[in-house]
Amino acid sequence: MKTLKLNLFAVLSLLGLIVAGCSNESSAPVATNAPAPAPAAATAPAAAATPATPVPQTATGSFDDPSSLTATAPDDFKVQFDTTKGLVTVEVTRSLAPNGADRFYNLVRSGYFKDIAFFRVIPGFMCQFGIHGDPAVAAKWRDANITDDPVKGSNTRGTITFATAGPNTRSTQFFINFGDNTSLDGQGFAPFGKVTEGMDVVDKINGEYGEGAPQGNGPDQGRVQGEGNAYLKQNFPNLDYIKSATIVQ
């Protein structure tokens, strides 16, 4: 079982975060007392985001063949997620974490993010996603890891970062920070982008199931890997999903 190395105090005060890879991996640690999302201002609700203009794409590899997805990302690019709660735009800065930005870029271009669950949502902390709903596809990515990037940014509210099961285990799992989780910076979690539109949508992603099994009552990642969306939709019917992701202008 892969875990991050922590001292006893940290083990007692932190819960498990973020795993990517084999189905028997436990989560990396995370603060249970992370600050809550910033309260909404007492103003009229923000207008719903409108779909952005997709950027035409040339031929790319297939998401069921990790070895085919090796393109270098632009220095800066935007991705719009169409989720079951609304539209969310993420702006990526490649210089923050080049390896991570390249992987994310290739996944988006390949159409990987279709019917992808926010399977681990801890209010006030983060929402995690990225295991493919088709177990056959998920299996191909479990060992398709990329080399770690040095941490140049900080896990502040709205930043997007890879989930990890330890050094050099980043694959297809990500999380968006609900709050300022700067304690993760020193643990090797390197943000590569930030939500620039739709953070109010991110705040609405359903967190009723909370922490995943066995620490909590949420989805078991081993079963998500092995059974896919069939397991999630039968046992956790109120989860939110990414319907699609598009590189936009």
Describe the model:
- This protein is of the alpha+beta class and 249 residues long.
- It is 18% helix and 22% strand.
- The protein has six helices and eleven strands.
- It has helices at 8-13, 98-110, 135-141, 199-203, 221-227, 229-235, and strands at residues 14-17, 28-31, 76-83, 86-93, 116-117, 120-122, 126-129, 159-162, 174-177, 193-197, 241-248.
- The strands form two sheets. The chain has a nine-stranded antiparallel beta sheet.
- Helix 3 crosses helix 5 (221-227).
- The longest helix has 13 residues, at 98-110.
- The radius of gyration is 17 Å and the shape is globular.
Keywords:
alpha+beta, disordered N terminus, globular, nine-stranded antiparallel beta sheet, 22% strand, two-stranded antiparallel sheet, 11 strands
Low-confidence stretches: 1-48
Q: What order do the helices and strands follow?
A: HEEEEHEEEHEEEHHHE
Helix content: 10-25%
- What Rg do the Cα atoms give? 17 Å
Question: Taking strands numbered 1, 2, ... along the chain, how are they ordered across the largest sheet?
Answer: 5-11-3-4-10-8-9-7-6
What proportion strand?
15-25%
